Amino acid sequence: MRATLFDLERTIRQRRDADPDQSYVAKLTARGRAKIAQKVGEEAVETVIAAMASDRQGAIGESADLLFHLLVLLVDLDISLDDVLDELDRREGVSGISEKASRKGD
Ligand SMILES: N=c1c2ncn([C@@H]3O[C@H](COP(=O)(O)OP(=O)(O)OP(=O)(O)O)[C@@H](O)[C@H]3O)c2ncn1[C@@H]1O[C@H](COP(=O)(O)O)[C@@H](O)[C@H]1O
């Protein structure tokens, strides 16, 4: 059976308090939010580099790294994947073009 992002989110929550010598999640969490956020940035840049090189396998691997590290950051911020999906639901059917145009008068 395919694991979901919800499974990974649950695993990350469980691993946060594990032994940092045994768990990457625990080790990264112990280094603090700034370090977690830095990792998200690094993985995002590596995804962009793979995409610009049309490196399909690289883009898949870096995207997995990016999603994983983003979930570690969200857990650290006590933001659930559901919170983010709720926001995407709220946007569903609203064209990005018209949404941006509606902000022009802000
Ligand atoms: N999906 C992942 C996952 N993706 C990437 N990584 C790790 O992320 C790290 C990224 O490597 P880097 O070289 O960028 O990081 P780094 O060596 O800390 O580098 P610096 O930033 O310190 O320079 C590697 O150690 C990868 O193994 C992951 N580690 C864990 N998971 C999942 O999280 C679960 C719990 O992992 P543990 O907490 O390690 O038990 C695992 O069962 C997996 O399902």
What does this entry look like structurally?
The protein is built from six helices and no strands. The protein has helices at 5-15, 24-30, 33-52, 56-76, 81-91, 96-103. The model has no long low-confidence stretch (mean pLDDT 95). With 106 residues, it is mainly alpha-helical. The protein has a domain at 5-78: Helix Hairpins (Orthogonal Bundle). Helix 1 crosses helix 4 (56-76) and helix 3 (33-52) runs antiparallel to helix 4. GO terms for molecular function: ATP binding; phosphoribosyl-ATP diphosphatase activity. Keywords: Amino-acid biosynthesis, ATP-binding, Cytoplasm, Histidine biosynthesis, Hydrolase, Nucleotide-binding. Belongs to the PRA-PH family. It is an enzyme of class 3 (hydrolase).
**Strand composition percent:** under 5%
- What is the tally of helical segments? 6
Q: CATH superfamily assignment of one domain?
A: MazG-like
The third-level CATH topology of one domain is Helix Hairpins
Average residue-wise pLDDT: 95
N-to-C series of helices and strands? HHHHHH
User: Which runs of at least 5 residues are low in confidence (pLDDT < 50)?
Assistant: none
Radius of gyration: 17 Å
Q: Sum up the overall morphology in one term.
A: globular
Q: Give the CA-CA distance, first to last residue.
A: 47 Å
* Major sheet characteristics: none
* Secondary structure category: mainly alpha
CATH class of one domain: Mainly Alpha
Would you report the number of β strands? 0
Helix content: over 70%
CATH architectural name of one domain: Orthogonal Bundle
Bound molecule kinds, no repeats: phosphoribosyl ATP
